[in-house]
Amino acid sequence: MMILSRYAILAIFTILITSNKATTTNIVLYDLRPSTTLSLDDIYEYAHLLGALSGLMNRDIPRLFTIYNDSDLRWLFYMASINWPQDANYMEAASLVDLIKFFSDTIQGVALYDPIVPATSNLASTASGVYNLIPICYRPVPNSLYTQLVVEGPQLPIKVNFVDMFTGNITGSSKADAYLWATEHFLDSKLADSTYLGYYIDKWWSQSALASQAVFEHLAVNHDWIIKNRGFLFDLSPWDDEAPNDDPQQPIGTDYNTLITLLKKSYQQHNGTKFSTVSGFVPWLFKYVNEKHGGVPSEWRMTHIMSAFNVVIDADACCADSFANAAFFSHYASNQSEKRFIQNVLPSREELIQKEFLNEQNIVSRKTYSLYYAGDYDSAAWLANKFKNLWDDPKRGSVPVAWAVNPNLYDRFPLLQPYLYQTRTANDFFVSGDSGSGYLNPTQLFEPRKFSNLPRADNLWIERNRFFYNKFNIKHTGFVINGDSGMLTNDSDTMYTKFSPLGFTRQQGYTTLGETALIPGTRVPSFTETDLSGKDEVQQVLSYYKPNDVRFVVFRGVLRSASSYADIAEKVQQIQPNITFVDPYTFALLARIHLSGNYTYNDDLVSYVDDNLPKLISTGDYVTVNFSIRNEGWNTLNELDLKLTFACDIEYVFPWNIEIKHGNIGTSCYQFQVECNQPGEYKVVYQLFRGNTSFEEFGNVPWISSVRLV
Ligand SMILES: *[C@@H]1O[C@H](CO)[C@@H](O)[C@H](O)[C@H]1NC(C)=O
Ligand SMILES: *[C@@H]1O[C@H](CO)[C@@H](O)[C@H](O)[C@H]1NC(C)=O
Ligand SMILES: *[C@@H]1O[C@H](CO)[C@@H](O)[C@H](O)[C@H]1NC(C)=O
Ligand SMILES: *[C@@H]1O[C@H](CO)[C@@H](O)[C@H](O)[C@H]1NC(C)=O
Ligand SMILES: *[C@@H]1O[C@H](CO)[C@@H](O)[C@H](O)[C@H]1NC(C)=O
Ligand SMILES: *[C@@H]1O[C@H](CO)[C@@H](O)[C@H](O)[C@H]1NC(C)=O
Ligand SMILES: *[C@@H]1O[C@H](CO)[C@@H](O)[C@H](O)[C@H]1NC(C)=O
Ligand SMILES: *[C@@H]1O[C@H](CO)[C@@H](O)[C@H](O)[C@H]1NC(C)=O
Ligand SMILES: *[C@@H]1O[C@H](CO)[C@@H](O)[C@H](O)[C@H]1NC(C)=O
Predict the structure, then answer these.
(1) Which N-terminal stretch is annotated as signal sequence (predicted)?
(2) Which CATH class is domain 606-709?
């Protein structure tokens, strides 16, 4: 990790603070780094306070920026370079007391928690978001935050007090009693929004023997995103066969049973109409992991359980996961004029012939086609902390790479994807990371759902992924991971074909279909990944070479730079030029022809790249709309229909008589009158048709949006 010198850091402050522009955005800057030399109690408590302040102060507009880590400085530079927030005027707060005074209009008081029941620190975070309070630990000793802010200084009033509230008289565990109370008080009442869950270690962190070796890993700054959204925080063991190390006296299974109750109540808030996202992870460095249960088994156990309750994971896993300022950054999304993020066009047949991947008879050349999956960005924290440095690399573009970013991370960290799409080269392509728009185990979406017995949620998953894949023009799922949930099934494969038409790559060993296969009845190819091992990767890649044959292999790298991929490819190709590295979409198109023997499978592919349909309409309005469609397939498109389903579910059929050649965008303009007179929110869907056959049948996800009639 790059460490900026103190001098460089001061220079940034000077640039930002002395700028004399007409200012429209005042932002308070707080440097939290000095707190990391305090006691472990203070380290947690200061970070927790800043996490809460960031969530509250940045709820509606960006107002407070915390400097805690290199990555915060990197993004501060970047934001200045793009002038966002517009003409920002940064003012550094000299002390915490000043900071609290500055924001006294928003802070209603204190949620006081009990260090004897460390779980109450998470209850205090939930209360913070719900009631606009700051979480403070009850430690009546000199210089504690309790002393500085409650006893002395601003003497903030205590509005919620968890001290001495939980004794274990209900479950035999004060920890579990605290969470059970919280599920009733915050989830049953809907005071907290269960769409935003946080799985972050509680104040017990300060007593962990490992804390002093990992001073950023309490992740208390990460609470900001949950607090901004009035979400719910917890930290419970997923294991039911032993007591957790932070509560060894509890009856076995108490944490686990509490977790299940919490997830049931979370589900009940929206009754299966949405997915929840849990940001965070099993805190495996400190808790729940031992000789009996390792780190990866604990991750898989957690995912197995969460998936059963429609919860996807935004996996802030150790040790790249300390992430302040998400609440601040999230506002960037509202200022992105670009509605859709469009990738490089798919290759034409002629390009593949020219590269000698295909001959004139449409036979795929006997080579080993290799795809780099560059992940795993299934956590907004990892994405923000690690990816920009790995991407900003002079060798990027010298070899094709499938960069694997879960598109849903845009909600919590929208700064990076626009930059990636703007600065991509002809060799940079995007796929999703783990499992799609959120990390889960796909077969857990089908009944019977172990742990929950809830109804199936495959259609909800299809709908969610269609939205995010459309927005980011993604057509391939990079790493379908099923962990402890068993083999992937026909049902789960079919589900992926509905939103990931140019294929998906599975975790190794999870299918009976074989290394590479078309999903029966579709044109969708599926592949198998191999983890780049790190020992001798060149030999590893070479070992997959299949002489005189066609083979498709996916090499998965985690947190590697563009140079790392380029260097391996260069060495491999010196030794075996029949191993060739291709992008994910060339990979898919070649696999489709090779596996089917039918080159027309690559016809009739499109991307719906733009439209200007209104979002708000009234009865009788005349709507004039342009649709722009890019031809990604190998045939020339013309004489089609565009069918639009609009307000009141009325269908309009427009003739599409604009010729579009491969790689080109055709735009067609239509006018229609709104006949609907029932106010409300309506789903909007459009796609091309040839006669009565929708382009969906050829592997094109329809465009889906919404309109409100007033
Ligand atoms: C930034 O945070 C990570 C934990 O995510 C930590 O490992 C690293 O040491 C921190 N770096 C600095 C300079 O603060
Ligand atoms: C977004 O842009 C609008 C106008 O373009 C501006 O008024 C607003 O302050 C911006 N919001 C943020 C968070 O930058
Ligand atoms: C547990 O203790 C609390 C107070 O400490 C009390 O209000 C509650 O009634 C007790 N519950 C049971 C089941 O004993
Ligand atoms: C929850 O959804 C199920 C299935 O759609 C439905 O039968 C049930 O009535 C709903 N329950 C509530 C409380 O809305
Ligand atoms: C899954 O699909 C394969 C190929 O179509 C078929 O042979 C197999 O019987 C199916 N399995 C189940 C459980 O439906
Ligand atoms: C590459 O593949 C072709 C066709 O199978 C074969 O003739 C040639 O010997 C291979 N080259 C190497 C270096 O293995
Ligand atoms: C190839 O696929 C097309 C559909 O794209 C189908 O109409 C045609 O019959 C297929 N050809 C062969 C030889 O299977
Ligand atoms: C539609 O696109 C055409 C050019 O293709 C342009 O002249 C026209 O202004 C656009 N109409 C709307 C409503 O955007
Ligand atoms: C489309 O379907 C309709 C109704 O099923 C039928 O009347 C029409 O002839 C079909 N058109 C074509 C081109 O197949």
Answers:
(1) 1-24
(2) mainly beta
